[in-house]
Amino acid sequence: MKVFVFLLSSATVIMSNCIDLECPIVATKNGLVEGTQEFSEMGKVYYAFKGIPFAKPPIGERRFKPPERPDNWTDIYLAKENAAHCLQKNYLFRHPKVEGSEDCLYLNVYTPQIRPSIRRDSSSKKPLPVMVFIHWGGFFCGYSDSDYLGPQYFMDKRVLLVTFNYRLGVLGFFSTNDDASPGNYGLKDQVMALQWVQENIENFGGNKDKVTIFGQSAGASSVHYHMLSPLSRDLFHQGISESGTALALWAQPNPDNQALIAVAQATIVGCPDPKNSTAVVECLRKVDGEILVESGDKFKTFAIDPLNVYGPAIEKKTVKNPYPFITEHPIKYIKCKQFHQGPWIVGINNEEGLLRSAALIRQSETREALNNSFDSIMMNLMGLILSIDKEKIPGVWSKIKDFYLEGGHEIDVSNFYTLKGFTDMYSDRAFSYSVYQAALFHNFQGHENMWFYNFNYSGQYSYAQVWAATDEDVAGFYWGVSHSDELLYLFQTPALFPHLENPNDKIMVNNMLNLWTNFARTGDPTPVRSQRRWLKMSPKDSPTKNFRYLNIHGSHRESCPPKFEMREGLNRDRYAFWENLPLHENIPDLDQAT
């Protein structure tokens, strides 16, 4: 996406047709960019700059390589429209199809004020705290544009917001475990976006010395990875991880599995020498990007599972790969206390597992197929082969069924408790337990300024309605508070949901924005003068594993307004169950962790 206006002859026309800053122009290291004037939820003016390139297009020979800085331009770059998504197939939506472009490394800047020296109504306003959001999508899909991440709520809180694309799936995370394709290209794209922020954000009215990175799901795991990676630790100051960390099963590096995937990928698209990594990469560079992404279908073993085929990789530092993103497993970095010590908010939603359970329960054809071979399919869907020695899998699965499903061998739609148990099982395996592990381990290792939350507010709309990908219903099925639901109260999402009109939902928007933007401004979600205090995790919590957290609950019903209460011992029985299973990724007892 390259849109320019000739600088000399056209600039006069632009300015003469614009009233005040309706067409704001800002200087970046690469050249001038022109944005638009827009309006926040409360009708306040802000300035939007959409689709600014922060790297060269990763196409041709730049496929499977780290991002490169963009070329400079001499004309005014028109940053007025959303850029293309990164090439992907979003299996979470109905009727998934390949969409987007490989030429996708663009970012968006939204700001209530532009640098005073640039403004015609120049004032002495202080630079704004900067919030950089990393989008969701399991490293295989996701969007950064204003149709999915509308900035209007944030613009009422006087912060500067940045969103951006990064490479996804095979194009973003293909790894051969050697110099041919070390991997982590999507994460390195994120690093380059953060570098761009450091170099340019002051001209947009932002404070480069007060940068908060925050993300959801894969974006939340990315935040955690940036806390660990030497490439990015110095590019931000604090973070928020919503429903994901680097310890999530789908986010942890697995070199053995990655090697198998690389061979399988090469075989699927017909590369002649699938075990020769150099030849494989040369072959894959020549395959049409859409065909490469579409080939992800071949990795599915049941319905759209496994969702995550590609993800972060452990790299080797070599002459050809001098700047690896990570060279050790995340647990090793935490054990050695090699992590960003800045403030960190981390938390989960109450029914994270609705991301998959909603579809598996509500789609009758899928549910019937699952029930016909329940045990064998579920052992696969739970990814037990990644965590447990093969011979132990049946015994461990039997324990999981007993704990969550009352020992059942199918999804019984007439039993509320097994339906809820099925969702809880997915919640804990895919999200909640690993978030708990990461928070507890960081706390034990002396990470002082940490806050934990559980989001349990049930609004008028839910992402579970999206994840179900069907209009079929099941009597008595409890929707709950799904993976991604907190995003409804941070961003406007016109691509998926109507504008929020429910009074309680609006209260939740204001409360969530206050917590997140207070944190961006002060490093504390509830500064000293706040009426309610969100207490930090305490080092005393680690030995008992009974840490305190903020419970955010209520509903859109008039009788259940939003509430924020401190509690302790979140899901303690469920997490203790997983701690006692023979999982490879389980962290040793904390008294042995160092």
TrEMBL record:
Residues 23-578 form the Carboxylesterase type B domain. InterPro entries: AB_hydrolase_fold, CarbesteraseB, Carboxylesterase_B_AS, Carboxylesterase_B_CS, Type-B_Carboxylest/Lipase. SUPFAM superfamilies: alpha/beta-Hydrolases (SSF53474). Keywords: Disulfide bond, Glycoprotein, Hydrolase, Serine esterase, Signal. It comes from the Eukaryota. One of its GO terms (molecular function) is carboxylic ester hydrolase activity. It is an enzyme of class 3 (hydrolase). This is Carboxylic ester hydrolase.
